């Protein structure tokens, strides 16, 4: 499987290890995040079991990756995002790495609903905490490392 955002500037590179795992490397831009999400859907869609869906995983990964684009790197100088995924036992595990700014206090933001008086935003980390399990974050040797798992089954429909 090959997904390249722009052959003149290799941005999105997909490296298939096996049917259940996928490694992606891409620039922290909205366009390349969208391409990465399409690459993930294309890679995993055919292998889903009965009742499994990528909807929850795609929502969580979109929030995480867009947060990196918006907060970890300056808009004028986007850095790289490396993403490793592994599908097993009805779950999708993810490890996301970037070399942008560390999260405030070197820890995950709280997963609380935003205050009502805020004009917009603040729902991303609430959604991530609500939909993902096993969230962990550390900043090590200049690299942000976020790990999480998400169900491939819609728990509401089960």
TrEMBL record:
Domain Histidine kinase/HSP90-like ATPase: 26-149
Keyword Lyase in annotation: no
Domain of life according to the entry: Bacteria
Any one Gene Ontology molecular-function term assigned to this protein's record: protein serine/threonine kinase activity
SUPFAM superfamilies: ATPase domain of HSP90 chaperone/DNA topoisomerase II/histidine kinase
Keywords: Kinase, Serine/threonine-protein kinase, Transferase
PANTHER family: ANTI-SIGMA-F FACTOR RSBW, ANTI-SIGMA-F FACTOR RSBW-RELATED
Protein name: Serine/threonine-protein kinase RsbW
Source organism (scientific name): Rhodovulum adriaticum (Rhodopseudomonas adriatica)
């Amino acid at each position: 499987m090959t997904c390249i955002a722009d052959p003149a500037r290799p941005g999105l590179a997909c490296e298939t290890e096996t049917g259940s795992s996928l490694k992606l490397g891409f620039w922290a831009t909205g366009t390349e995040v969208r391409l990465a999400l399409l690459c993930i859907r294309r890679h995993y869609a055919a292998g889903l079991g009965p009742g499994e869906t990528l909807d929850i995983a795609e929502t969580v990964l979109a929030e995480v990756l867009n947060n990196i684009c918006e907060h970890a790197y300056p808009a004028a100088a986007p850095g790289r995002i490396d993403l490793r995924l592994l599908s097993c036992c009805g779950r999708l595990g993810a490890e996301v790495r970037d070399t942008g700014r560390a999260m405030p206090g070197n820890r995950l933001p709280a997963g609380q609903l935003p205050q009502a008086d805020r004009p917009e935003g603040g729902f991303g980390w609430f959604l991530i905490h609500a939909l993902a399990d096993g969230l962990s974050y550390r900043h090590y040797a200049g690299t942000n490392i976020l790990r999480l798992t998400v169900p491939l089954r819609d728990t509401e429909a089960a």
